[in-house]
Specification:
Elements lengths: L12 E10 L3 H12 L4 E4 L31 H10 L17 H15 L2 E3 L3 E7 L5 E8 L2 E12 L5 H5 L4 E3 L14 E4 L3 H6 L11 H8 L10 E7 L2 E6 L10 H25 L1 H4 L3 E5 L9 E3 L7 H5 L3 E2 L2 E5 L9 H5 L17 E4 L11 E3 L8 H7 L2 H18 L12 H10 L13 E2 L16
Parallel strand pairs: 1-2, 1-6, 2-3, 6-16, 13-17
Antiparallel strand pairs: 4-5, 5-6, 7-12, 8-10, 8-11, 9-10, 14-15
Keywords: 4Fe-4S, Iron, Iron-sulfur, Metal-binding, Oxidoreductase
InterPro entries: FAD/NAD-bd_sf, HdrA-like
Protein name: FAD-dependent oxidoreductase
Length: about 475
């Protein structure tokens, strides 16, 4: 690639912040709210015009489960967001805990009120352009671009909630990306909504999800009439009156760290939404015959890119053994949900699961050390790019657990901002856990301490995939 040397220039600097959060998805929202709640002067920068990430701009139509099939385990700010949205959706049961639909416009306002109500400042339409860091692992400033032009934003502590570990990676942190053997990334999905759906016909017709062996999606694929529809993946929910949201199909070879790749995928996804509408109108005419494409996501549904290497790398063994940790900041019970290659997803039955799902009441801990890049001093990472092996990333990448991780990162950042050198590795995890519990976090302590990981253990290594049945 050719290079261009920029003319030496000075840009405006804002250096009054204690904590800056990059990325306003679920993790970023709870991180900013928690840091501000702890008294830190907090700024949240977001590249789009709304908060919420995949649940709002990305149009993901439902929350992944909030429970371990017995009780809600993503609590604190996560549960407040979840319950606030449910209360505004009359068609959703008050007792519902799992796969609850999302109405994105209502959720946008809930996030606005959460973050602003805690006292954090939000900068929308502000793109991260560069990260200034020194050789000791300190981030010195974030360089952003917006209608204000180029600006340098400086804080004591930074929380990377970009989903792609942009802050950490650009500051020089170690990371892994996708399948380390092949370089493959999980496929993306461009979510969309169909309006003017006949709800009665939809709810009383055949189940569309591909878990139903007689789903119309298999007739659509078998007809050969709609070759652009890639496979049978088709999650869907009523998100508002006469409106059904879809998380459907796969787009392969999409890399969210490459703007050209994502730009092409967004165009392909918008075209695909119209094809799904036409196919559903033909094969489920009572429900979708008069429907139209009401909206397509302004964000691509990206499942993975970078994973930082932190002070601890959460392993498959940790997941399988339902491990607890002395420094854990939340629990997680979601299954290992790795979307496969094009060949795997197009085969009969799709990609097989190789790691058995948890039973009722089962979960594993996520240690604070997975949020701390081991070569950076004043940076935390929360969201899908925390320190873990790829298999586990397929579980911890979803919104409920990202909400829980974000709150922990926000409290930890506020604590680190009061330390002499702002070192996130030096945060007192006992104080952090105490504050999380005071705010309602689900952090049960085993009665005899068994299953606790060593809080002083060194970072793990990326292991070979292990098949568990």
């Amino acid at each position: 690639m050719n290079s261009y040397r920029m003319r030496s220039r000075e840009i405006p600097l804002q250096d009054s912040w204690d904590v800056i959060v990059a990325g306003g998805g679920p993790a970023g929202c709870t991180a900013a709210a928690a840091a501000a709640r702890e008294g830190a002067k907090t700024l949240l920068i977001e590249a789009t015009g709304s908060l919420g990430g995949m649940g709002t701009s990305g149009l993901v139509p439902a929350w992944c489960p909030f429970s371990d099939m017995k009780t809600i385990i993503y609590r604190g700010l996560a549960m407040k967001v979840f319950e606030a949205l449910k209360a505004q959706m009359p068609h959703v049961s008050k007792e519902a805990m799992d796969w609850v639909p999302i109405e994105p416009e209502k959720l946008k306002v809930i996030y606005d009120e959460l973050v602003a109500g805690a006292g954090a400042t939000v900068l929308f339409n502000t793109q991260l352009g560069s990260v200034e860091a020194d050789e000791e692992g300190n981030v010195l400033a974030l360089i952003t671009a917006s209608k204000n032009g180029l600006q340098a934003l400086k804080a004591k502590v930074y929380i990377d909630c970009t989903g792609d570990a942009d802050v950490a990676a650009w500051a020089g942190a170690e990371y892994l990306k996708g399948n380390t053997a092949t370089g493959e990334l999980m496929p993306a999905t461009h979510c969309f909504t169909l309006g003017n759906v006949d709800e009665y016909a939809y709810l009383n017709g055949p189940l569309l999800h591909n878990n139903n062996k007689t789903s119309p999606i298999f007739d659509i694929l078998g007809s050969g009439k709609f070759p652009l529809i890639p496979d049978s993946h088709i999650c869907n929910n009523v998100i508002a009156p006469r409106t059904v949201g879809f998380n459907a199909g796969h787009l392969w070879d999409v890399d969210n760290t490459d703007a050209f790749s994502v730009s092409a995928a967004l165009m392909q996804g918008r075209k695909l939404a119209s094809v799904y509408r036409d196919a559903l109108a033909e094969y489920m005419p009572a429900a979708f015959g008069s429907s139209y494409v009401a909206n397509t996501g302004s964000l691509m549904g990206v499942r993975e890119t970078r994973r930082i290497t932190g002070d601890y790398v959460l392993s498959v063994e940790d997941y399988v053994n339902r491990r607890s940790f002395a420094d854990e900041i939340c629990r997680n019970s979601y299954f290992i949900d790795i979307h496969g290659t094009e060949k795997e997803e197009k085969q009969a039955g799709g990609k097989p699961e190789v790691i058995k799902r948890y039973g009722p009441g089962e979960s594993h801990g996520i240690p604070y050390r997975c949020l701390t890049p081991r070569t950076l001093k004043n940076v935390l990472v929360a969201g899908r790019s925390i320190s873990c092996v790829r298999e586990v990333q397929g579980s911890v990448r979803v919104m409920p657990v990202c909400l829980a991780m974000g709150e922990a990162a926000g409290i930890a950042a506020a604590l680190a901002a009061n330390l002499p050198d702002y070192d996130v590795h030096a945060v007192d995890v006992a104080v952090l856990r105490k504050r999380l519990k005071e705010e309602g976090a689900y952090l049960p302590d085993p009665a005899d301490g068994t299953g606790f990981g060593d809080p002083g253990a060194a970072a793990g290594e990326e292991g070979k995939p292990v098949r568990y049945h």
